[in-house]
Design a protein that fits this description.
alpha+beta, extended
Length: 113
């Protein structure tokens, strides 16, 4: 499993001459298999980002995982994801995706007119 690309841990990127600190992370048995999500909803407040990873099937959706994090950590996560996607595409070719995501209507909605 790839770690945060260049994050250097909670303090940010490592400066020259600094040693990387080893952090041992426990992966509990109940989450080893992970969950599959094919959509993500994001919202934020002044202090945090909330990401709801969702499985959409047949017009119905279920949140399978919720991640709440600080704005600073969100920025580091995005940088790590971008770096890992760059490496992936370097090995496997460019990932094709939709430029514009379909608009989803979630929650209670007024009847369509």
């Amino acid at each position: 499993m790839a770690g945060p690309a260049g994050s250097g841990g909670p303090g940010g990127p490592r400066g020259e001459g600094q040693q990387a600190k080893e952090i041992k992370v426990n992966l509990p048995q109940n989450i080893v298999g992970g969950v599959y999500a094919n959509a993500m909803l994001v919202q934020h407040t002044d202090d945090e980002f909330v990401m709801d990873f969702t499985l959409l099937v047949g017009g119905n959706g279920t949140v399978v995982s919720r991640v709440i994090t600080s704005p600073g950590h969100m920025k580091r996560m995005i940088a790590a994801l971008q770096e890992n996607l760059r490496r992936y595409e370097g090995s496997h070719g460019v990932v094709k995706g939709r430029e514009v995501q379909p608009r989803m209507r979630l929650g209670f909605q007024p009847p369509a007119e």
